[in-house]
Amino acid sequence: MGLGGALAAGGARAGVLVQEEANLLGVSVGELLTRIERTYHDSDGRPVEAADITVPDVRWEIAYEIPIETPAR
After folding, report:
1. What is the distance between the alpha carbons of residues 64 and 10, in angstroms, rounded to a whole number?
2. So where are the chain's domains?
3. Alpha-carbon span 45 to 52, nearest angstrom
4. Which of 16, 34, 37, 45 has the most CB within a 10 Å radius?
5. What's the CA gap between 49 and 4, in Å, rounded?
6. Alpha-carbon distance 5 to 43, whole Å?
């Protein structure tokens, strides 16, 4: 990310590759994919960066690691 941030919010949805995406990724038109759209916000809630990620299902697996902070007692 590079800009620092306090929150990342977004979502993922299924789709199929269109010609331009298939050409760029070296796969066939119509193959299944996952689209991930994410916005990073600073500690004041302002968006500081956006990420649009296209993942062809045939080539990659999506995995996440999410740190869970324990509240101070």
Report:
1. 13
2. 1-43
3. 19
4. 34
5. 9
6. 6
Going by C-beta distance under 8 Å and a sequence separation of 6 or more, which residues neighbour residue 48?
3, 4, 5, 40, 41, 42
Beta strands across the sheet bearing 32-41: 7-16, 32-41, 47-56
Q: What is the pLDDT of residues 16-32, one digit of tens each?
A: 999 999 999 999 999 99
Q: What is the pLDDT of residue 73?
A: 66
Q: Record the pTM.
A: 0.71
Q: Please say whether the beta carbons of 17 and 35 come within 8 A.
A: no
Q: Does the pLDDT at position 1 exceed 60?
A: no
